[in-house]
Specification:
The complex is a heterodimer of chains A (about 350) and B (about 200). Helices cover about 30% and strands about 20% of the residues of chain A. By secondary structure, chain A is of the alpha+beta class. Chain B folds into 2 domains: about 20-130, Rossmann fold; about 135-195, no CATH class. Chain B is about 20% helix and about 30% strand. The chains are: A alpha+beta (about 350), B alpha/beta (about 200).
Chain lengths: ~350, ~200
């Protein structure tokens, strides 16, 4: 498979689009016609060639433009990437995991040559060639976590494991669904999830934590999460909420298909070998409603999910005000026919 | 008492005597009463190993004489937390095994002193806290990162960037502050009536 990288933006003129091939492989997150929280964790195994589940770290047509957007956000706000002092080793673990996975799974795009601690990394899409000494920070232009996550799609939370809990002690967060690394860094699993409604009472976080504490090296896990975003903004941070929140007002039935996006997070969890930290990549996939409804099954199901979503969730996900409009627009694509089980197009 | 809310919100207890070689007590305003209550059940020589750092704020000298009467090894009465900070840092830097930390008073005082103690290597779970007095909040603006002290109203205006912020219960130990988020972000200019929520 040869990926053709698109030139597009996630700000100002918002030229982001999905090709028809990208639409077909979109990780539609609803296996049935309704949605409620669940732990929904499964092994992160290679599955369905061509899908976003095939590779350890999916590289798609948006790669180069997403990395440019990350650099732009970091230039505006360096606090989006932070690592507490004890997390440097976990950063090296992460760098190794990403470089070895990408070089093995995308040999035409990435190469890694290792001679003991002397490493040579080639990233063709971004035009980067770097010789460095593994575990020697002075040989890289950034700390190891920042270096490699400037070259990898998705946000990264690096979690230290101690006292039977997970602590968000490092991260690269520029494509987030409205949470602040700068505020949450240093918090434990329950604390950083504190603002999520209902799920605490349902015991979701207790069960999820128990599972995550036991993720073993070589046996990563994954789940999907979702929300909705007006305009293809990767950066919907609380820091910039006063800039993007106002865009929600511009939504109309006429511009809905182009302006409203389903935002899906492919969340994965890997145990890191030296630090015993858990890395939690949160990869954001965006799809316009116009693109989504090209798959009739998804259009019908999405209409039903949004229509019937409990109000607390619609509020938390930030689209409760626009929901009537969204449901009205989607209803045109729902003829009431049944949908087949599972997330894939028919 | 403070209302319970979400899991990032600190939970405060009641100060209790714990064995130790040095008892560092940091309190502001009505927090003095928590120390005085602790003293009621303490053995006679307990305060011989105590260092009290006290910021009376609006309570003036209401509690000062009674604290002095406990005969702590050291007592400092200061005009503000900022003024007390160099001293607090010096004490923590010189601390050995067997230090017990007791914090009492407003959330802002306890949060900031806890942060100092954590930076000195004391786990937050080993630090005792007791909330007394005012429920005013220390709030960080998520947009400009400036911190506004003693917030009483919600929404309030950020003392740094001037945005009108609503006060969340989400709390960061590392910043020792609640989070403030622009209240009219989705509808600029539509600012709800400000209500006194914290006194």
């Amino acid at each position: 498979m040869t990926v053709i990288f698109k030139e597009e933006t996630f700000h100002d003129d918002f030229t982001f689009r999905n090709s028809p091939e990208a639409v077909k492989r979109f990780p539609f997150p609803f296996p049935e016609d309704s949605y409620m929280y669940s732990v929904n964790l499964e092994p992160h195994k290679s599955y369905r060639p061509g899908s976003v589940y095939e590779r350890t770290f999916d590289v798609d047509e948006h790669y180069v433009s997403e990395m440019r957007d990350r650099a732009r956000v970091l230039a505006e706000d360096p606090l989006r990437c932070q690592s507490l002092p004890h997390m440097t080793l976990a950063g090296w673990d992460l760098l190794e995991l990403i470089m070895t996975s990408k070089a093995e799974e995308y040999p035409e795009l990435f190469e890694l040559h290792r001679d003991g601690a002397k490493w040579h990394w080639i990233n063709r899409p971004l035009g980067i060639e770097q010789k460095f000494t593994f575990l020697d920070e002075t040989t890289l232009p950034y700390g190891p976590m920042e270096y490699i996550t400037r070259q990898t799609q998705g946000d990264f939370a690096v979690l230290d494991q101690r006292d039977d809990n997970l602590w968000m002690d490092a991260g690269m967060v520029t494509t987030q669904a409205d949470w602040s690394l700068d505020f949450d860094i240093g918090m434990n699993f329950f604390e950083w999830h504190a603002p999520v409604p209902k799920a605490h009472e349902m015991g979701i976080f207790q069960r999820a934590l128990k599972f995550l504490l036991n993720v073993r090296q070589g046996s990563p896990a994954r789940r999907l999460n979702w929300t909705m975003t007006v305009n293809p903004l990767l950066d919907t941070s609380p820091e910039n909420y006063h800039k993007w929140g106002v865009m929600k007002k511009d939504l109309t039935l006429e511009n809905m298909g182009q302006m409203m996006h389903l935002r899906v997070e492919l969340q994965t969890f890997f145990r890191l070998p030296r630090s015993n930290a858990l890395v939690f990549p949160i990869r954001c996939y965006l799809i316009k409603l116009d693109e989504l409804v090209t798959v009739p099954k998804w259009a019908r199901r999405f209409h039903r999910v949004i229509r019937d979503l409990p109000i607390e969730l619609a509020t938390y996900k930030g689209f409760v005000t626009n929901r009537p409009k969204i449901v009205e627009w989607l209803s045109k694509y729902d003829n009431g026919a049944p949908t087949s089980p599972g997330i894939w197009p028919d | 008492m403070l209302e319970g809310s979400i899991p990032s919100r600190p939970v405060y207890g009641v100060l209790e005597m714990r064995p130790g070689r040095l008892h560092l007590m940091v309190a502001d305003a009505e927090g003095a009463e928590a120390i005085l209550d602790l003293a009621a059940s303490a053995p006679p020589d307990f305060f011989a190993g105590a260092h009290i750092v006290y910021i009376p704020k609006k309570t003036g000298d209401r509690f000062v004489a009674r604290l002095e009467h406990l005969a702590p090894a050291q007592i400092y009465v200061g005009p503000s937390y900022e003024a007390a900070l160099p001293r607090l840092r010096r004490v923590l830097a010189g601390a050995h095994m067997g230090l017990q930390v007791y914090l009492a008073g407003t959330e802002g005082l306890m949060g900031q002193a806890m942060l100092e103690a954590m930076q000195a290597g004391i786990p937050h779970s080993a630090i005792q806290t007791e909330h007394r007095g005012s429920t005013v909040r220390r709030v960080q603006c998520v947009h400009c990162k400036g911190i506004t002290e003693d917030v009483t109203h919600d929404p309030f205006q950020c003392s740094h960037c001037g945005l009108h912020l609503f006060v969340r219960d989400h709390y960061s130990r590392r910043i020792a502050a609640f989070q403030g988020v622009r209240v009219d972000a989705e509808d600029p200019g539509n600012i709800p009536q400000s209500v006194e929520r914290f006194r």
